[in-house]
Amino acid sequence: MKFKMAVCSLLLVCLVLLFSACSSSEDSNTTTSENGKTNRDEDVKLTFYTVNDNNTFSEIIKAYEEVKPEVEVEMINAQAGLDYIQKYEALQASGNAPTLAMLEPATILKYKDSFLDLETEKEKYQNLTLSGTVERNLFEGKFLGVPFTTQGYGLLFNTRVVEEAIGGKFDPESINTQEALAGLFEKIKASGTTPVIIHGANWSLGSHYMGLNYALQSKSNEDNLNYIEGLKNGEVDLSNDNVLNGLIDTFDILKEYNLRYDDPLVANIEHDGIDFARGNAAFYFMGDWAWANIQPVEGHDKEYGIIPVPISNDPSQYGNNEIPVSEPFLFSIDNTKSSPEQQQAAKDFIEFMVTSEEGQSAFVNLQRITMPYKDVKVESDNLLSPAIQKYAEEGNTINIGIMKYLPGDHYAEIGSVMQKYLTDNIDRQGFIEEFGDYWQSKGE
Which residues cross the membrane (predicted)? Predict the structure, then answer.
């Protein structure tokens, strides 16, 4: 590491000397910006922090530089996972923030004062994206990141399996209460098929399932933030919290009919995908990213759908007819070191990535993601995406933007409590007590 730092320092000195010499030449057409960066009159260089899965961004950058040869995009290719965030934080701490970065909303929130306010771009992206996309990605009212991928989750279903079990056409909209869900599961079980798979990992239980608790308290993000503050202060009566208890009631149904009933913490997402794809279970609590494990399965079924997780027996209750949809990553522009020219070039590059056929093709075909845009020119082979897209297009979505305000250890800690409940190591009262203790520890 010290050797690398020494080499980088030497290179930096050389570059400064080189640029100084060039700037003194009478034939030079370069200028030096106030922050010490030297650029040609028209040429602009961007640094772009991202994860280059399947060479997605390599392909996009290549296409963009052919259209805009005066712009050079230097990719800083990091690895996904915790290291990805740590490396970005190190760049911020060293004063070397990239011009453009692909970041999780929680990281953007943490460094919100370091990013360019994209208010001037907001209306454009409201028109380009599906309803509600921009609104659920605001940070204290500011538009700091442009969405490019969207994910939805809930109870995925294998259409063939469900319809064979019930002996006819399945209407997903008919399952909007807990009673309807339990009744359907009982019919499926009677047909000889297991009704559902629960993935027992802490991230699935603690983040995706329990994340619904904070998003469904109200349609207002401000109200949901107040709810979290109430949890920290011990002011919420959890025993009478209708949303929390409704989610536990539904979880009891899922537990009873779980394919992994005898070994609920096995948490092998590949095995889950295989069982679901082959029809060994009719439903699967998961999101459209599960296609990565379903698609490779030989002879997998071809038709799938999704229904919400009902949390009560009131068909009109918020959440019983909507699915949670979010944008896990956003494109944000640095506002600490980047010049106005770099910032404008970054805006143009983002627009190219999300609206051009070249950019959309790379996202859809190489990353197999769903894009939250009205005019997507490329058709995806992800058979889970159309059902989720339908909810998004009709506006039947749950805003789970509240999740970016959750503590960093939430999914692990609350996921662990959920695992105890899943394995019957604690009862409902024990769950409520541990849930409450966790949140009050955040208020101390």
Answer: none
Residues 183 and 277 in one domain: yes
Residue 357 lies in a domain: yes
424: Cβ–Cβ under 8 A, 6 or more apart, which residues?
none
Beta bridge partners of 304: 158
Question: Could you tell me the CATH number of the domain that includes residue 347?
Answer: 3.40.190.10
Separation between Cα atoms, residue 435 and residue 416, nearest integer Å: 10
Residues 311 and 216: beta-carbon distance below 8 Å: yes
Residue type, 362: A
Same domain, yes or no: 311 and 362:
no
Q: Which residue type does 203 have?
A: W
Per-residue pLDDT tens for 295-342?
A: 999 999 999 999 999 999 999 999 999 999 999 999 999 999 999 999
Distance CA 194, CA 262 (A): 13
User: Using alpha carbons only, what angle is made at residue 352 by residues 351 and 355, rounded to the nearest 5 degrees?
Assistant: 75
Cα angle 374, 64, 31; round to 5: 125
Burial (Cβ within 10 Å: 0-12, 13-18, ≥19) of residue 83? exposed
Q: Could you tell me the two tokens for 382?
A: 């992800």
279, two tokens? 């029809």
Report for 89-93, 227-231, 297-301, 397-401: range of highest mean pLDDT: 227-231
- Number of folded domains that form the chain: 2
417 burial class (0-12, 13-18, 19+ CB within 10 angstroms)? buried
- Yes or no: say if 402 and 229 are a contact pair by the CB < 8 Å rule: no
- Say if 110 falls within a structural domain: yes
Rg of the chain over CA atoms, in angstroms?
Answer: 24
Residue 437 to residue 444: CA distance in whole angstroms:
11
Helices (H), ranges, 191-261: 202-203, 210-215, 221-232, 242-256
Query: Which is it for the CA torsion 421, 425, 428, 433, positive or negative?
Result: negative
Query: In the prediction, which pLDDT does 367 show?
Result: 84
Judge contact between 405 and 197, C-beta under 8 A: no
Query: Rounded to the nearest 5°, which phi and psi values hold at 314?
Result: -100, 110
**Which tokens in the block code for residue 188?**
């499926």
Name the helix (H) or strand (E) containing 432: helix 428-441
| Domain range for 427 | 152-325+398-441
Q: How many CB atoms lie within 10 A of CB 393?
A: 13
pTM of the model: 0.84
Could you give the CA distance from residue 272 to residue 90 in angstroms, rounded to a whole number?
Answer: 37
139 lies in the same domain as 243: no
Closest to 148 in 3D by CA, of 373, 352, 361: 373
